[in-house]
Each structure stands twice: as C-alpha cells, then as structure tokens.
Amino acid sequence: MATESSEGEEEGKITSGNHVLIVEDDLRELGKKAAWSVSSCKPGNGVGSLRDDNLETYWQSDGAQPHLVNIQFQKKVKLQLVVLYVDFKLDESYTPSKISIRSGDGFHNLKEIKTMELIKPSGWVYVSLSGNDPRETFVNTFMLQIAVLSNHLNGRDTHVRQIKLYGPRPNPIPHQPFHFTSREFITYSCVR
Amino acid sequence: MQMAQSRYLFALSCFQMDLLKEAEAALCPANEPGAEIPNGAAGHYLLGLIYRYTDRRKSAVHHFKQALSVDPLMWAAYEELCVLGAAEEATAVFGDAAALCIQKQYLSHGSASQSLNMPNEDRSAVSARNFGPGPDDASPRQLKHMQGNNLRDIPGNYHGAAAVQSSNGGSSNISFYNTPSPMVSQLSGVAPPPLYRNVQPNVPNPSIPIADSSPRSTVNSTIQAPRRKFVDEGKLRKISGRLFSDSGPRRSTRLSGDGGANANVSATMAVGNGTSNSSKYFGGSKLSSMAFRAVTVRKGQSWTNENIDEGIRNENFDDSRSNSTLTTSSSSPSGDTRSLEQEGAVIPINADIMNGSRSISGASEIMDLLRTLGEGYRLSCMYRCQEALDVYLKLPQKHYNTGWVLSQVGKAYFELVDYLEADWAFSLARQASPYSLEGMDMYSTVLYHLKEDMKLSYLAQELISTDRLAPESWCAMGNCYSLQKDHETALRNFQRSVQLNPRFAYAHTLCGHEYVALEDFDNGIKSYQSALRVDTRHYNSWYGLGMIYLRQEKYEFSEHHFRMAFQINPYSSVIMCYLGIALHVLKRNDEALVIMEKAILADKKNPLPMYQKANILVSLEKFDEALEVLEELKEYIPRESSVFALMGTIYKRHNMHEKAMLHFGLALDLKPPATDVAAIKSAIEKLHVPDELEEEM
Questions:
Q1: Do residue B607 and residue A189 have CB atoms under 8 angstroms apart?
Q2: Which of B132, B258, B505, B517 has the most beta carbons within 10 angstroms of its beta carbon?
Q3: Do the Cβ atoms of B513 and A137 come within 8 Å?
Q4: C-beta atoms of A181 and B417 within 8 A
Q5: Residues of A with CB below 8 A from B645's CB?
Q6: pLDDT at B145
Q7: Strands A122-128 and A27-29
Q8: Is the pLDDT assigned to residue B264 strictly greater than 60?
C-alpha cells in the first residue's frame, strides 16, 4: 500500500508531496538554460508561472488533453530529477493525476521514459529520471517533455504551480576524465 | 592655485574624488612643463598613483622612485613599486645613502623653525583626522597593546610613517611632510622620535599623515605616563597653534630617546597598519570610511589604533582642525611625532648638535629595519615566497610579532599553498592587531580553502563589526557564503566590497570567481578584467580568465592567459599545472609535459601535476609510463578515486580485465560523485562483454 510519503517506485504512485524542496548538494537546477513552452494556456496563467519561484501563481492549460510542457536545451544535458509543485487541496480537479515524461532530440523522436501516477498530492513531487542501472543515472538529452495525461476527478484542464529540473554539477576542473575526491587534490585544484 | 601646497591639496582632493585628470593637471600643469612637483616626495607619490591608475606604468614607476629619492623613508612609494613589480632591492633603496640623506634633511630642518607655522596649519588640517582616533580611546588601548609588542611594527605604509618620521625627526616640524601632508618640506626621513611623552602632541601632529598618528599611538602606548602629558600638551596646542616654546626641553628628551631608535622605528612602524591601507585605499572610498572612523574615534569610541590607522591614512585631508587637538592630546605616539615636529621648530641650539648625532643613529636603525621589511615585501610581491619568509625571520622578535609582518608571513604561506601555516600566521596577526583589516581578505580565502566554515564565519562577523565600510570585511563575508555554495549571496557581498573600494583588485577577482560558479561567464570575464585594470599583476585574475576560456573551449585564449599568470608568478605549481592542461588540450603535448615536470618539481606536495602528466601520457598512448606515474601517485595519495579510475581505464585498454576491475572497484569505494559512478560502472559493464562473448564461443 502506498501510504508512505515518498514515491513507491514500483507502482509509479505518489501519494503526497513534500512541503519543502530539498535536493542533494551534488545536483544543480538546469531550468535556466532551457527554452520552456506549453501546449496551451489561459491568458494570465502562462508558462512564466511555472518558473517564477512563486507557488501562488500557476499554469493553467486551455485545450485538449494531454497537456504538454516542453523543455528544450541547446546542448545535450544530463538530467536526473524533475520536481513539480502541485496541490490537490487548492486545485482539486485541476490537479494532475497521471504524468508521462518523454525525452528525445526534438518533437519528432520523443520517447516515454517515465510515468507517474499522483494520488491527491500536495506539495513538491519528486520524479527521478534514473533507471535501475547505475549507468542510467542520468538522461542525456536535448529535450524533455512533461505530459499531463489526466487530472483528478476527470478535470479537463490542469494547474501546475512550479517545475524544477535537476542534473549533476559539472566537474569544476574542465577537461578531466574524473572528479577529484580527496582533500589534497581539491586543495591544489584551484586558485582563488 | 599658485602656491605649491594648495596645488597639492587640490590634487589630492581631486584624486580622492576620482578626478584623475584634474589631479594630474594640478600637479603638473600642462603649460609649465618645467614646474616642480609640489610637496616633494608626497607630490611625487600622488602623481605616481595617478599615473598608475591611468595605466601609465613607466611614469608611475619613475615618480615613485623620485619620491623615494627625495624622501627615503617613504615606504608607501616603495610598496607601490613592489606592487607594480618594479622595485629595486631594498638594500639599494634603503641603504646608507638614504640614511645620510635623512640625516641631512633632519639637520637642515633643525634650523627652519619658521616653516613650522605654515606646516603646522596645514598639518592640522591634514592630521587632524589622523590624530583624532589616536587620542583618547586609542591611547589606553594602545598602551595596553603596546605593552605587549613594543613595536607594533606595522611598517605598512610609510606613507604615514614618513610623515611621522619627519616629525619624529623632530628636527623640524617641517620634516613631517611626508606625503599626504600638505607640508612643503620633504623631510620625511627624520628618524622617528623615540617614544616620548614629552613630545607635544599637538603641534606637528596635525601634519602627520594619517597613519602616523594612529600607529604612533600604538607604538607609544608603551609609555603610560605620557597620557597626562599629552592632554596637557593638547591644551597647549589649542592655545597656540605652534607651540615651539615648550618643545625645547622636550625635544632634548626626545632626542635622548633617539637612542632607542628602534622604538622610534616602531613608532613609525606602527603606522604600518594604517599605512599599508592608506596607500592602497588612497583613492578609494576609504576616505569616507576613514572619515567615519575618525568621527567615531573622536567620539571616544574605543576603536583600536589599528582601526584608526587605516582610516587615518586616508583621511588625512579631512577637515577638522579640532580633531587635531583631540588627537594630539591622546596619542602619545603621535604626540611624539608631533612634538617632534613642533619641537623641530623650536629646537634649542644645543639640541641641534644632539640631534645630529642621534639622527644618524636613528636614521641608520630605521634604514636597517626598512631594508628588511622592504626586501621581504618586494620578494613576496614577486612571489618568491620562501625567500620572503626567510627575510622576515631575520627581524627581531618584537618586530616580527606585529600585525603587519605576521600578515605578510601569512600571505607568503598562502601563496605557497601551505594553508595550515598561513592560518596560523594570520591568527597570530589577529591576536597582535585584532582591529587591523589588512590582509584579512586573504585570511578569509585561506579559511575557505581549509573549509573551516566556523572560523570563517566568525572572522567575517568580527571584521564587519570592526569596520562595516572596509572591503575586506565584505570579502570575508562573501567567502563565507561561497563556502556554503550560496553563490548568489556571495556575489552580492563581493559586489558590496567593490562598491566600497573600486580600487581593491581582489574584490573584483572574487566577483569573477562567483560569476563563474554561477556559470555567468560574460560577467565573470568583465569582473576579472576590472581586477586587471586595477592591478595588472594580479595573477589570480589572469588565471580566472584562463579558466573561463578553457571551459568555453577557447583554448588559445586560455593558454595565453595562463601564461600571463605564469609570467607574473613563476613559482606557482597550480598555475603551471593549468598551463600544462591548456597546452595538452591544444595538442602541444611535449610542451605540456615539460611544464608538468616543472610543476612537479616546484611543489612536491601538489599531486595534480603528476595526475595530469599521467593523463597526457594516456592520450599519447604511453600507457606504461602513465601507469608508473599513477602508481607513484597512489603511494602518495592513497585515497583519490580518480587515480584508481584512470588506472582502471588504462588496464581496460590493455585488456587486463582483472586489474581493471580491481581498480574500478577501488575507485567506486572512494565514493566519487554520481557522474563518475555512472561512467565507471558503464566501463565495468563493457569489461564483461568480451568475457561473455568468449564463453558463448
């Protein structure tokens, strides 16, 4: 039974969200480097509300399902985590219930990499993009698409309040095959 | 604007308001090419600064050298020369000729009592500020402090020192002219007066350039008794602008004190704290901060001398004659100098003779000290840090254990990448001069490197509470946030630092580092370039630019910038290592290997060049050599994941699967970050495939 607050990955269900956004130190937010677009929106509740760091404002779609959020990068980036802020208590029938995450080089070759079912979520919902294999920790891609396939209570349109994308930090020393871990290496690795 | 002194004052005001063109025009009017630079050494120094900040390095160097030849005790000018990389050896500059020169000046001033009048006034204006802080609050404190280290030797800027010295010289008030003071006479060389209580604090003090006053106080602090005297003197001063009459006897006392030249020196040295600052912040907003401090001081806050010193320097010119009275009374040291000045005027006839002999011994003692300090400073500016440390060790204990010297020692260790020693030296410096901010920005970087977040935040808090308007405090605060990986706040703090003093190169460099951490390379480049505009020899900025270009894959640019950094600091193994990386990326592998060898030799403790050498050898397919290097490195640093990972990749290339597996496993055990884990694991997977294929067969 998925009564835990964290994701039950086997079933792809999330029952609730966290109130605080806590991300590991070795991840950094990548959304600033991307071009964000949505399949449809109500005037005043556009794509900007997804990225404004304001949980009061939200994106409201205005068209047929599935509702899409498209995130495109100029270079391939390694993505590890997608975090969404949705709130059933505030949005009720606008709250997404089934999401699908697709990735690819562009609109023409997107493939689904993850699906999640949300059950009355309220807060930050963490969707990890890693596979089971340690080699699949990241998704190295040009484009990510978050699709809202259905909403709670069969609502037509959806509200999403914030989306954040995380990937690994780059090596502070460029052109190195591996990161440095020991104190001695790190001390000598930069001039401040 | 005819009078030389008015021209000088005008130029100084323009300089501090950042109107460099007008300042230059005042000092050397275009239509009078042969005109003499007003105010002798001080004028040359100011002109040198103007040329430095308008990118005319050669002229700047010329004028600083002139300033030194006119007034051999002008430490500030020597400091500037070191920073510009054009300083001659200290033994040459602060040699016997210089001592004689001082001596001469001292004697000649002896008779010039007249000049006192004028200078006094000027000085009051100038020094008023300086002395301000010294007095009241400072004194008791300083006294205490001073007890501990006699010579708070903070040679720092002699700028002030010179002035002070002149005053000390006592010979005549005129001697004060050191630099910023509006005094005309150029006697700066006068030996600093011994710590006299008798010295009338008032008179000459005003002229004493900023730093002097305060530091002096510190130095003199050893003398407890004088306080009372100073107060009296202060009153006297108020009464008569130039109190020469009283100076006679005092003068002799002072002169007798001369024997303890060291004391004098220390007095002058005391200036150090402030001095160094002043020269640097000369044009900056320091003035305002100084003013702030001076004001505070006057209000009897017990700021330590150091604080004042710093402020004082710049504030020279601030207003407040009334301050001078204040200052004069309180600071004994200043008093000394001042009295000297004044006394100079009044020198009794017999004193002249006494002065003469004392001044020689005094001058030579000062020269001795300056020689050591100058040489140490010059070497550390050339980044010959080990030599600089050896030179500083030659100082007598009482000089060594002072804030300025210990900061310099800390700085030398910092450049040698010996952060533990640097931490130790800087913490001693803080104990010696808790309110001195010079060099504290570097201390905060040391703590950043050592990842001592507690100590760093404590340091930052202390600095901010000491002086909210000093760029170093905000640099320390910024480093604190940067250590917590909060780069945006760190950047804001560094920007505040820049705002407080746009001529503080390190603040710009730190802004650059934060921009790079935020991946905002354009602004990063701009910040580094601003830093270089202030100080072309700031090799960290060249390095920063090289790193940005390396990331942006503009390898030629990157190599050029690393090379510039290397030319400025040819002893840094880190810079050599990066130059090698840039050369490797440009496929100039032979040169890269040469540089890596140099880097390995330059600092045995730095493991990176060896690692990079192995990396280069791998790309050249010289796997065996690479493995040798890595084996050696493994012995030296046994817990570095990347070493094992690289060895694993080499064994994999050689199809030595078991060894590869072993090393990859070891690499993973050392907990590298996720990207490496992924890379290593996928390499491991690929290792198995050939085995499977064999089995299938």
A1: no
A2: B132
A3: no
A4: no
A5: 177-178
A6: 41
A7: unpaired
A8: no
pLDDT band at B492 (very low <50, low <70, confident <90, very high): very high
Query: What is the rounded CA–CA span in Å between residue B510 and residue B540?
Result: 9
My answer on whether omega of the bond before A66 falls inside 30° of 0, hence cis, is yes
Interval B324-347: pLDDT, tens: 333 333 333 333 333 334 443 444
Q: Whose CA is closest to B214, among B95, B296, B113?
A: B296
Query: Where is B517: in which H helix or E strand?
Result: helix B505-517
Closest to B425 (Cα-Cα) out of B437, B440, B435, B395:
B440
| pLDDT reported for residue B354 | 63
Chain B residues within an 8 Å CB radius of A179: 641-642, 672-673, 675-676
For A33-57, write each residue's pLDDT tens digit.
Answer: 899 999 999 999 999 999 998 999 9
The distance of A158 to chain B (nearest Cα, Å) reads: 33
Q: Do A176 and B615 touch (CB under 8 A)?
A: yes
Q: Which residues contact B267 (CB under 8 A, 6 or more apart)?
A: B151, B164, B168, B192, B193, B194, B195, B215, B216, B219, B220, B333, B336, B337
Residue B390 to chain A, least CA–CA distance (Å): 24
For residue A144, what are the β-bridge partners? A71, A103
Longest dimension (CA), chain A: 58
Sign of the four-CA dihedral B654, B659, B665, B669: negative
A178–B contact, CB cutoff 8 A: yes
Percent of chain B having pLDDT more than 70? 62
Residue B650 DSSP symbol: H
DSSP per-residue codes, B633-690 = HHHHSTT-HHHHHHHHHHHHHTT-HHHHHHHHHHHHHT---HHHHHHHHHHHHHHHHH
What mean pLDDT is reported for chain A?
Answer: 87
Rounded CA gap, A192 and B513, in Å? 7
Minimal-distance CA residue of chain A relative to B506: A192
d(CA B18, CA B465): 28
Q: How far apart, in whole angstroms, are the C-alpha atoms of residue B692 and residue B697?
A: 9
For B242, list phi and psi in degrees, rounded to 5. Answer: -120, 105
Structure tokens at B317: 């010119």
What pLDDT, on the 0 to 100 scale, is given for residue A32? 86
Cβ separation of A178 and B679 shorter than 8 Å?
yes
Q: What is the mean pLDDT of residues B357-362?
A: 77
Residues of B in contact with A177 (CB under 8 A): 615, 642, 645-646, 649, 679
**E runs forming strands in A129-181:** 139-151, 159-160, 162-168
pLDDT for the residue numbered B443: 96
Mean pLDDT (chain B, rounded): 72
pLDDT tens sequence across B173-212: 343 444 544 444 444 434 444 443 343 334 333 333 333 3
Say yes or no: A140 contacts chain B, CB-CB below 8 A: no
Q: How far is A80 from chain B (nearest CA, A)?
A: 10
